[in-house]
Amino acid sequence: MRETIMAAEALARRNILVLTLAQSLGAAGPPIIISLGGIVGQMLSPDAALATLPVSLYSLGLAMGTIPAALIMRRFGRRSGYLLGAAIGVFSGLVATLGIVLAAFVVFCLGTFMAGFYGAYVQSYRFAAADAATGALKAKAISWVMIGGLAAAVIGPQLVIWTRDAFPAAPFAGSFLSQSALALLALPVLTLLRTPPASSAPAGAAHAANGRSLRELLLSPRLMLAIAAGIVSYALMSFVMTAAPIAMVGCGFTVGEAALGIQWHVLAMFAPSFVTGNLMTRFGKERVTALGLLLIAASGAVALMGLELAHFWISLILLGVGWNFGFIGATAMVTDCHTPEERGRVQGVNDFLIFGTVAAASFSAGTLLTASGWELINWLVFPAVALVLVPLLWRLPAVRAT
Fold first, then answer.
1. Residue 338: inside a domain, yes or no?
2. What residues contact 308, with CB distance under 8 A and at least 6 apart?
3. What is the pLDDT of residues 8-57, one digit of tens each?
4. Are residues 179 and 243 in the same domain?
C-alpha cells in the first residue's frame, strides 16, 4: 500500500514538472500577441478603430475553445488533447505570420483567433497537475505549474525584442513565427505526460457512475462561489491591465514607461506562485482567495490616489499579486467541488465562464476608458470584488469547522 502511494506521488510530481515546462512554452505566446497585436493591427487594418481587434479575438478564441478542449480531453485523454492543442498553436503562429507577410488583416486576425484555442488547452494545465495529486500536493501542484508563467513572462517579451526585425520587409513576422516555434517545442515535452485514461462514459449522462449533471453542479453554492471568485479575479485583472497602458500614455508617460509597468505587473502575477501553494496549505484556499480579492481592491484604491507614475506601477503590481492569490485560490477551490467523473464538465464550464468574461472585459476596457476615463475603470473594481468577497468571508467559519 505504501509503495502504491509513493508511486502515485512520484507520477504526480513528474506530471507537475512536465506541465510546468509546457506552461513556460505555451504561456509565452500570449505576451507576443498582446504586445504586438495592436501594433500590427495598426499596420494592417483598414480602419484605425479595429487596431486592437486581433488581441480581442485571441481572448474570444480562448473563451470559445474551452468547452471543445474539455470534451476532446474527456474523450481522448489529456495528453492527446494537449498534443492537438500544441499543433493548433504551431498552425496559428504560421497563419499570423502569413497575414503579416501578405499584409492581410483578416488572415492575421484568423491567426490570433486560432491561438486562443491553443490557449484554452494551456489554461487547463493547472487542472491536469492537480488531477493526479492528493492532499497538500493538490493545492501546491496548481501553484507550481503557474510558476511556468513566470518563465513565460520573460520568454515572450524577449522573443519580441530578438525577432521583431528578423524580416525587414515584414516587420514583426519573426515574432509570430517564434510563437509557432514555441508551440512546436511544447510537442515533445507534452509526450512525456502520463495521466489517467479518459472516462468512456458519455459526457452528458447524469447517472451515478458519471457524476452529477451539469445543472446539478452549477446549482451547488460552493462551486458557484469558486467559479465566481475565478471570474472576478481574472476579469478585473484583464479589464484594468488592458486600460492601464492607454491611460499611462494619455497622462504623458512614454510607451517605454507603460511597457515597464506591464512587465512588473506580469512578474507580480506569477512570482508569488513560489509561495501560494504553501499559503493555501497553511491558511486554506478560501483565505488566500479572499486575500487576493482584497489586494485587487487595494490596487484600485492606489490608482485612485493620483496619476503619478508610482501610482500606476504600484497599482499594477498589487493587481498582479492579487490575481495570483485570487485565481490560483479559486482554481484550487474548484478542484474540491467535483468527483473525478465530473471534472471534465466542471473544468470546461469554469474556464468557459472565466475566459468568456475576460473576452468581454477586453473588448469593453478601451471603449469605457475613452468614454469615461481611468477613474471610473478603478471605481468599478470595488463592487465586483465585494460581490464575491462578502459571501466568501461569510463561508470562512464553515470552512474552519470542516
1. yes
2. none
3. 778 788 889 999 999 999 998 888 887 788 778 878 988 866 777 888 89
4. no
Q: Max CA-CA distance within the chain? A: 66
Closest residue by Cα to residue 181 from 251, 48, 89: 89
Place of cell 471570474: 231
**Coil, strand, or helix at residue 149?**
helix
Q: C-alpha grid cell for residue 92?
A: 496559428
Return the residue matching grid coordinates 478603478: 378
Residue 51: domain span: 1-194
Q: Which domain CATH number covers 260?
A: 1.20.1250.20
Taking only the tens place, the pLDDT of each residue in 230-265 is 999 999 998 888 788 878 888 998 867 877 787 788
341 vs 343: CA distance, rounded Å: 6
Q: Which residues contact 230 (CB under 8 A, 6 or more apart)?
A: 326, 327, 330, 331, 334, 350, 354
Structural domain tally of the chain? 2
Query: Do 242 and 189 share a domain, yes or no?
Result: no
